[in-house]
Write a structure and sequence with these properties.
By secondary structure, the protein is α/β, with parallel strands linked by helices. 50% of the residues lie in helices and 20% in strands. β1, α1 and β2 form a beta-alpha-beta unit. α1 crosses α3 and α4 packs parallel to α6.
C-alpha cells in the first residue's frame, strides 16, 4: 500500500490539499506519485466552428482549457517540489472525471488514490454525485479524500 499513488487534481483548494497529502504519503512510504488531471473535452457547437472558420482563427477552443490545465498542473508540481519530491509523473486526460480516474488507476495498477472531497464541479456534484464519492464507491484500491 502507498507504493503507487495517484493524486487527482482539478484546481480546487481541496485538490491542492490532496496533492500535499499525496506527497506526504509518497515520502513517508517511499512510493511513486502520479498527478492526474481529467479535463472536460470542449465540443464546440456548429455555430462556434463556423465562427472560427469565418474569422480565420487558428486552433480550437480547446486551447483555452489546455492553458488552464497546464496552470493547474504547474501548481500541483510546485506543491510536490516544495515537499521535496523530485520524481513526479504527470498525466492529463479528457473525459468523464470519475470514469477516467478509475480506468487510469486500473490500467496503472494504482494502490492508492488521493483526491479532494469537493472539487470544481460543486453544482454537478450536488445533482449527480461528486467525483470523489463515485471514485470511493467504485475503486478497488484505497481512496483518501481530503478537505
Amino acid at each position: 500500500m502507498f507504493q503507487n499513488i495517484l493524486c487527482c487534481i482539478d484546481g480546487s483548494e481541496h485538490a491542492l490539499r490532496a496533492a500535499e497529502q499525496a506527497c506526504v504519503l509518497a515520502q513517508k512510504f517511499g512510493g511513486s506519485l502520479t498527478l492526474l488531471i481529467v479535463a472536460k473535452e470542449l465540443k464546440p457547437s456548429a455555430q462556434v466552428k463556423r465562427f472560427i472558420e469565418l474569422e480565420h482563427l487558428s486552433g480550437e477552443p480547446q486551447y483555452v482549457l489546455d492553458e488552464y490545465t497546464e496552470d493547474i498542473m504547474d501548481k500541483a508540481k510546485d506543491v510536490a517540489a516544495a515537499s521535496g519530491l523530485t520524481e513526479v509523473r504527470t498525466e492529463i486526460k479528457t473525459g468523464n472525471p470519475a470514469r477516467a480516474i478509475m480506468e487510469f488507476a486500473e490500467r496503472r495498477k494504482v494502490d492508492t488514490i488521493v483526491l479532494g472531497r469537493r472539487g470544481m464541479g460543486d453544482i454537478e456534484g450536488v445533482l449527480l454525485g461528486s467525483v470523489s464519492h463515485k471514485v470511493a464507491s467504485l475503486a478497488k484500491c484505497t481512496v483518501v479524500t481530503t478537505r
